[in-house]
Write a structure and sequence with these properties.
There is one protein chain. This protein is an alpha+beta fold. The strands form two sheets. A six-stranded antiparallel β-barrel has the order 1-3-4-7-6-5. 19% of the residues lie in helices and 38% in strands.
Length: 159
């Protein structure tokens, strides 16, 4: 006997929810980011896994639901301003499979002229907040921190 959501939703409903969600995100919302995957086989790193000269794999355009968090910044002198902060990007697992892409910690995302470094690639599928109705995972949520262009551009070339 099935427990939880399988009691109410089977494979057909899962396919329907996935299809409708993808249509909403990839067609109607129509947001995307540029994915710059670090080629770890061609990038030299130091003892700590850091690299001043990154080599990237070919850039991919990834359709996604993007949220940029506002950050309240107080600078020296007490001047307060709102600044664009971290990015949370929801990407359908099937879309990444179609692109034959994998997003890893340390990769970079480009969105509206700004760059973000991936800090959580969303692969912790045991986390209930990353699943639809705490049962099925359709979308991976990627957390990326804003970085300066200088951090992103530290490349010798792309492959």
């Amino acid at each position: 006997m099935a427990d939880g959501l399988p009691l109410f939703f089977g494979n057909e409903e899962e396919a329907l929810f996935n299809s409708m969600g993808r249509e909403l995100i990839e067609t109607l919302v129509n947001q995307h980011f540029d994915l710059f995957r670090v080629d770890i086989t061609k990038t030299d790193d130091n003892f700590y896994g850091e690299s001043k000269h990154k080599v990237y794999k070919p850039m991919l355009v990834v359709k996604s639901r993007i949220q940029i968090q506002d950050v309240d910044v107080i600078s020296e002198g007490g001047i307060r301003r709102m600044s664009k902060g971290d990015m949370i990007a929801g990407v359908y697992r099937e879309h990444l499979t179609e692109l034959a892409a994998e997003i890893n910690v340390g990769d970079f995302l480009g969105y509206q002229g700004k760059f973000y470094e991936v800090h959580d690639a969303g692969y912790n599928l045991d986390a209930l907040d990353k699943k639809w109705a705490a049962d099925r995972e359709f979308m991976w949520y990627i957390l990326a921190k804003a970085v300066t262009y200088d951090i992103f551009k530290s490349t010798e070339g792309t492959s």
